[in-house]
Specification:
The complex is a heterotrimer of chains A (103), B (368) and C (464). Chain B has 368 residues and is of the alpha+beta class. Chain B contains ten helices and 17 strands. Chain B has two domains: 210 residues, FAD/NAD(P)-binding domain (3-Layer(bba) Sandwich), CATH 3.50.50; 141 residues, D-Amino Acid Oxidase, subunit A, domain 2 (D-Amino Acid Oxidase, Chain A, domain 2). In chain C, the strands form seven sheets. A five-stranded parallel beta sheet of chain C has the order 3-2-1-7-21, covered by helices on one side. Chain C has a five-stranded parallel beta sheet with strand order 9-17-11-12-13. In chain C, strands 4-5-6 form a three-stranded antiparallel beta sheet, with helices on one face. Classes of the chains: A mainly beta (103), B alpha+beta (368), C alpha/beta (464). Chains A and C meet through strand 1, helix 1 and strand 5 of A and strand 9, helix 6 and strand 10 of C.
């Protein structure tokens, strides 16, 4: 839904690669997971635990809690408040999160 | 002129009013304001008998009766109130951490067993507990637990809503946001003074929680109780992982996990403390370490009404026939009894003899 | 356990300005903020952007924040970025979680400078992926510098929507259309509200007028007087439907809609402490009850910046300084800077606020926001619609019981997106004024916190 400005695209030295649901996503150092996600084709972040509806980042300032994702296995993390770092593993949070011996 | 006025729209008052509506023609329930202390809205939601009535067999039997009635009562109230209340009665547990807690629990169970022939409560080993919770690990400190096949849980907020809706559907009247300033007796009738009106009734039931004492006193009923704060934590929604409720941790139908039960003597303070959150969370993790990374989203507190022996007080005024009072801290468990047995007797059917055991006069005897 | 003289929550214009005055005067000051760098929402990323082409496109007012940020960095206050406050107890015990783990701070005084949040503007379909706030898009403009991939549709009312459109165009983005939801206001009446401020603020007004003119010129379409706005789509946004001032229903196809209906004081922290709030009819928002220093109903808590009532960045700076001066007075210190006097701050604050009544009147939100139709989701977390709340209203005694009965406000956002709408629905149903209705209570934690972080406090022996 979003694209980086032309004049900023060249700065490849300032990028990292994160993983969203197993796919590599190029992100700019200093940006948040949510802002990187919004440049992806599928820019939604989770499905709700109530009806399973898809939600996407909405406020980007930490007050709507729509961009909740699993970050390195941690649930209920606001992607808009999470800075990217190289190799960061992020998953969309699908419905209620799973709890069990594996986590 | 009402056949009966119930003062209090919490889970106790609502259950009694709901029950009365099927016996009497005109019943009025008076509920207070939004800002007043509402223990019914701070409830943990257990339908629980396994720890009730140690040293008081009458209370043990009453709790047992109530949990047994709950099965048919939940169906009844969902139908009459038209609201699903998320009741489940798979049995319930009390977890023991360490040997000391295990021994203490065993002692309680044997005392209860000494008061009743078949309690349906038994101790489970750690191994047996593990089989009950296949989806989650038990902490290393869990030594065992008590299991009661009769116990269960319910959504207490939906129960309150259903009771009130069922009451209205049965022809009951509710006055909301009102306060009773005083009750006069004249010619065998009760005159209730509200802010801008007066209500007349043949009977009056005081079920106003901690506000009950001042209303009951002039009617010749003494209600000894103290207040005890309880704080509860609730988590985000997670997939189903706890198939059984336990005394301090249960998973709701919606997936959230409730962690309860501080017992604090702090008077009227309704605040919440991070200290309580810390100790509640720490114990929950000691029982289920896999919950460590689940997030708490809300914490609240409520004030329990605690009588000297923890059992309810059901009072019938001898000076002013037609005046009743009911206070207790187990309003959810006892709702089935309040709506059925107790309401029936207040309406004038059946003997009051069994109920008499729960008069506050039992404390006078002890003192003498 | 950290025991500073002053804890400041928020490192925006107000929080930083207060910290500078207080720290320079010799107080031990701790500032906690959720963002990784100082500046708040308004000056977000200013250290990185100032002096770049992006900074220039964002404007001089934006870049002016750099001076404050630099002074803040050097003032001697302890600054904890990327840290969230999840509980402040009435005794001021404050619990925070950040890169350093979970910590407790017990300050002598607290200054809350949590700023503003965008006004929740419930409309049908506003939960669809593809609907975002204008504020969110502006945040993306500041960092990492991203713009909508295609010409974008903007709907709403308020200076921020105009500013964003202006900045977007300057940075090479495009506006497909602007659906102006601002109710028409007689200009003369609004200007009278501004009074003599109009003369003093003619530059500001001219700038605003030029944004409007530019918008009408540069946007693919400009539609005034829009009502009945709804977002269409099933799995994600596919289009927008609205009614024009002339009563014509129109539909457009788009995969991104930015909405904005003004801003509100961020009162979550304030309300969790039970501090008194009141309805501000002019701003159509709740604000804390404060004296001229920013002191609230809690004796040891002060509130400054937009959290004290919407006033913008410049007013926030002066409010922050005034609160700091009061704090110095209470703790027996004096300001180190020569010109830092109460009189100077008050004069500057009055100037900064002069145009506010005019802006509030011109950009007063439309009534629909407070009374959405039955199908509209009110509580995004629990997915409750207006009809669910209206049905439960008749059988409840007020906002807190309504919350208990419906679960509105019980999700992770804790009512930040639905609290105001729920209060408005109650007011409408009971024929009461908003000033007569309180929103439901705020419960801790202010932000979700892991059980292990809570339990960690018990390990530290804090639990009795």
């Amino acid at each position: 839904m979003f694209r980086l400005l032309e004049d900023d695209r060249g700065r490849m030295e300032s990028t990292v690669t994160i993983e969203i649901d197993g796919y590599p996503v190029i992100a700019r150092i200093g940006e948040t997971v949510a802002s990187a996600l919004l440049r992806e084709g599928a820019s939604w972040s989770r499905t709700t635990p109530v009806s399973g509806a898809r939600r996407a980042p909405y406020c980007m300032m930490g007050v709507c809690f729509e961009c909740l994702m699993l970050v390195e296995g941690e649930g209920l993390v606001r992607a808009c408040q999470t800075p990217v770092r190289d190799g960061l593993k992020v998953e969309r949070q699908m419905g209620p999160r799973k709890v069990g011996p594996s986590c | 002129m009402f056949d009966c006025v119930v003062i209090g729209g919490g889970v106790v008052g609502s259950a009694i009013a709901y029950g009365l509506a099927s016996h009497l023609d005109s019943v009025l329930m008076i509920d207070g304001r939004d800002s007043e202390p509402r223990a019914a809205q701070a409830n943990f939601g257990l339908v629980w008998y396994q720890s009730k009535g140690v040293g008081m067999p009458a209370y043990q039997r009453l709790s047992r009766l109530a949990v047994e009635e709950w099965r048919s009562f939940s169906e009844e109230i969902e139908e009459t109130g038209g609201i699903p209340i998320e009741f489940a009665g798979p049995g319930g547990l009390t977890f023991c951490l360490g040997d000391q807690e295990l021994e203490a629990r065993q002692t309680i169970l044997s005392r209860l067993a000494g008061q009743m022939e078949r309690t349906e409560i038994g101790m489970l080993s750690r191994h047996e507990l593990e089989r009950l919770y296949p989806g989650i690990r038990l902490g290393k400190d869990v030594t065992g637990g008590a299991f009661s096949a009769l116990d269960g849980h319910v959504n207490p907020l939906r129960l309150l809503m259903a009771l009130q809706q069922g009451f209205v559907n049965a022809g009951g009247t509710v006055h909301r946001g009102r306060r009773v300033d005083g009750i006069e007796v004249c010619g065998g009738q009760f005159r209730l003074h509200l802010k801008r009106s007066v209500v007349h009734a043949a009977r009056v039931v005081i079920a106003a929680g901690e506000a009950s004492r001042v209303l009951a006193e002039p009617l010749g009923m003494t209600l000894p109780f103290t207040l005890q704060r309880g704080q509860i934590l609730v988590t985000e929604r997670v997939g189903p992982v706890l198939p059984y409720p336990s005394d301090r941790i249960r998973q709701t139908a919606g997936g959230t996990i409730m962690i309860g039960g501080t017992k604090e003597n702090v008077g009227r303070d309704t605040g919440t403390t991070a200290n309580a959150a810390a100790s509640l969370a720490a114990r929950a993790i000691r029982v289920f370490p896999d919950l460590a990374r689940v997030s708490a989203v809300r914490q609240w507190s409520g004030r329990r009404v605690i009588t000297p022996d923890i059992a309810p007080i059901y009072e019938r005024s001898s000076r002013f026939p037609g005046a009743y009072a009911c206070i207790c801290h187990s309003g959810v468990t006892l709702a089935a009894y309040h709506a059925r047995g107790l309401a029936k007797r207040i309406a004038g059917y059946g003997s009051w003899d069994d109920v008499q055991k729960f008069s506050a006069r039992r404390f006078d005897v002890q003192a003498a | 356990m950290l025991k500073p003289d002053l804890l400041i929550v928020g490192a925006g214009p107000a929080g930083m300005s207060a910290a500078i005055v207080a720290a320079r005067a010799g107080l031990k000051v701790v500032v906690v903020d959720e963002q990784p760098t100082p500046g708040g929402q308004i000056w977000r990323g200013v250290e990185a952007n100032a002096g770049t082409s992006r900074g220039r496109a964002l404007g001089a007012q934006y870049c002016s924040g750099l001076a404050t940020v630099r002074a803040f960095r050097e003032c001697g206050a302890v600054y904890w970025p990327s840290t969230r406050v999840w509980q402040i107890e009435p005794t001021l015990g404050t619990y925070v979680t950040g890169p350093g783990g979970t910590r407790v701070i017990t300050p002598r005084l607290v200054l809350i400078a949590t700023g503003a949040q965008e006004r929740p503007a419930p409309l049908r379909g506003w939960t669809l992926a593809g609907v975002m706030t204008v504020g969110a898009a502006q945040i993306l403009l500041k960092n990492p510098g991203s713009v909508p991939s295609e010409a974008v549709w903007i709907a709403g009312c308020g200076p921020l929507a105009l500013l964003y459109a202006h900045q977007l165009v300057r940075m090479g983005g495009a506006v497909a259309g602007f659906l102006d939801t601002r109710p028409s206001t007689p200009l003369r009446e609004s200007l009278r509200l501004a009074g003599r401020a109009v003369l003093r603020s003619s530059g500001e007004l001219a700038k605003g007028a030029s944004w409007y003119a530019e918008l009408r010129h540069r946007a693919g379409r400009y539609v005034p007087g829009v009502v009945d706005l709804q977002a269409l789509g099933t799995d994600r946004l596919e289009g927008v439907r609205y009614r024009t001032a002339a009563g014509r229903v129109e539909e457009i196809r788009t995969s991104l809609l930015l909405i904005h209906e003004g801003v509100l004081p961020e009162l979550h922290t304030v309300r969790s402490l039970g501090c008194e709030i009141q309805w501000d009819a002019g701003q159509a928002a709740y604000r804390p009850v404060l004296n001229e220093w920013g002191e609230c109903s809690h004796p040891d808590i002060l509130i400054a910046g937009d959290a004290a009532g919407i006033g913008g960045a410049e007013a926030a700076v002066h409010r922050g300084r005034l609160s700091a001066l009061r704090i110095l007075q209470r703790l027996g210190k004096v300001a180190a800077e020569p010109g830092m006097t109460e009189e100077n701050c008050r004069t500057a604050l009055a100037r900064a606020l002069a145009l506010r009544p005019f802006l509030d009147r011109v950009f007063r939100p439309r009534g629909e926001i407070f009374a959405p139709d039955d199908d509209t989701i009110v509580c995004r977390c629990e997915e409750l619609r207006v009809r669910d709340l209206r049905a439960a209203l008749a059988g409840s005694v007020g906002p807190n019981q309504l919350k208990a009965f419906t679960r509105a406000g019980m999700g992770p956002c804790q009512g930040r997106q639905c609290g105001l709408t729920v209060a408005a629905l109650i007011a409408a149903a009971e024929g009461r004024q908003m000033s007569d209705v309180q929103p439901f209570r705020v419960r801790p934690p202010l932000k979700p916190v892991r059980l292990c972080d809570l339990a960690g406090l018990a390990d530290e022996g804090l639990s009795s």
